Amino acid sequence: MYTLKVKLPSKNYEIYIKKGLLDYIGIKLKDICSSNKIAIITDKNVNAIYGDKLSMYLNKQGFITKTIVVKPGENSKSLENAEKIYNDLLDFKIKRSDMIIAFGGGVVGDLAGFVSSTFLRGIPFIQIPTTLLAQVDSSVGGKVAVNLPRGKNLVGSFYHPNAVFIDTDFLKTLNKRYLYDGMSEVIKYGCINNKNLFYDLLQYKLESDLFDNLDKIVFTCCSIKKDIVERDEKDLGERMILNFGHTIGHGIEKYYNYSYYTHGEAVAIGMYNITKKSEEVGITQKGTSQEIKTILHKYNLPYKMPNLEKSKLIQPIMIDKKNNNKYFNIVLLKQIGEAFIHKIDLKEINKFI
Ligand code: ADP
Ligand code: ZN
After folding, report:
1. Collapsing DSSP states into helix, strand and coil, what is residue 145?
2. Which ligand 1 atom minimizes the distance to the CA of 131?
3. What residues does ligand 1 touch, defined as CB less than 6 Å away?
4. How many domains is the chain partitioned into structurally?
5. Measuring from atom 9 of ligand 1, which residue has the nearest CA?
6. Nearest residue CA, atom 4 of ligand 1?
7. For 14-18, 133-137, 308-312, which range has the lowest pLDDT when averaged over its residues?
8. Whose CA is nearest to atom 22 of ligand 1?
9. What is the model's pLDDT at position 305?
10. Of ligand 1's atoms, which has the minimum distance to the CA of residue 181?
């Protein structure tokens, strides 16, 4: 088993990573949870495959559980849904000493985390991420949020779990498109921080090689994110490095109204295209974008910029909440495994996008 200790001013917690970990979560929770009441928030798909098993393991250890099931998909991350869940928690008579488990992908993690952070001013919660994207990204870092009709993740906070349990066996039932979606973030970690990870991924021959190494891969990604989050918990500086490929990626997602490309696919296009441009202006080592193209192709991810109106792509980027007016921060690579934040004048944006 791989274990990571996340140390933050407000909270310390552990991330456990192991194939087959689901079977032991009940036992582990006995040490973490002081009360015996647990609300499990999950979605319909995850519940259908793993719901009974999780409840059974928890009940076996003496926990009383209630499962709250939401519809799969981004639309579930709404205030309306949060309110429904608050009512379910009231019916279940959850107190501040009880616990919530977020059991699912990034959608469930964000929604259940948001509910945990607000209900009775905060209930302890545990993350059990079941998609690769959630395992390497959304379950570490404490960002919880719901969407508003006018935009994604507009209401939320930083609220860390009391523990994260990652069982890579969950990924066996994940739709392949979602698996590759998560691989895009894995590749990102290789690009920004760890060339060994990048080249290992590049040399795996079969998908079984990938599956055999998933515990180590997820551990490497979570360690990179943990280190960065520990240094910049509130996303005011260095944490921006994790946004490599995301400026263009978010632009593409928005352009297609979040319906054509998955997050990982849009980020893949972003990583390749920004690197191609920064190579052209002499910032990135030559050949880097070609290597990114090769690895994206290998993991069934797109790299080509779709034929779209560039001004419409740039517009949402300009109004992104993280940008002040005159300057613009973008994340670029020096080479594979090394990223840095580059400040550009807004007028220069065309050079990079
Ligand atoms: P993300 O983590 O990419 O934000 P979602 O939470 O939207 O993703 O989950 C993506 C889809 O995969 C949803 O339809 C969800 O129900 C489904 N899903 C999540 N985990 C699993 C799993 N381990 N096996 C099968 N389907 C899953
Ligand atoms: Zn991302």
Report:
1. strand
2. 20
3. 43, 45-46, 49, 72-73, 104-108, 130-131, 133-134, 170, 173-174, 178, 181
4. 2
5. 105
6. 106
7. 308-312
8. 174
9. 94
10. 3
Q: Going by CA atoms, what residue is nearest to atom 26 of ligand 1? A: 174
> For residue 319, what are the domain limits?
181-352
Angle, CA of 232, 238 and 240, to the nearest 5°? 105
How sure is the predictor about 321, in pLDDT bands with cuts at 50, 70 and 90? very low
Same domain for 248 and 292?
Answer: yes
Q: Is the pLDDT of residue 104 over 80?
A: yes
What is the pLDDT of the chain when averaged over all its residues? 94
Check which CATH number belongs to the domain holding 133 and give it.
3.40.50.1970
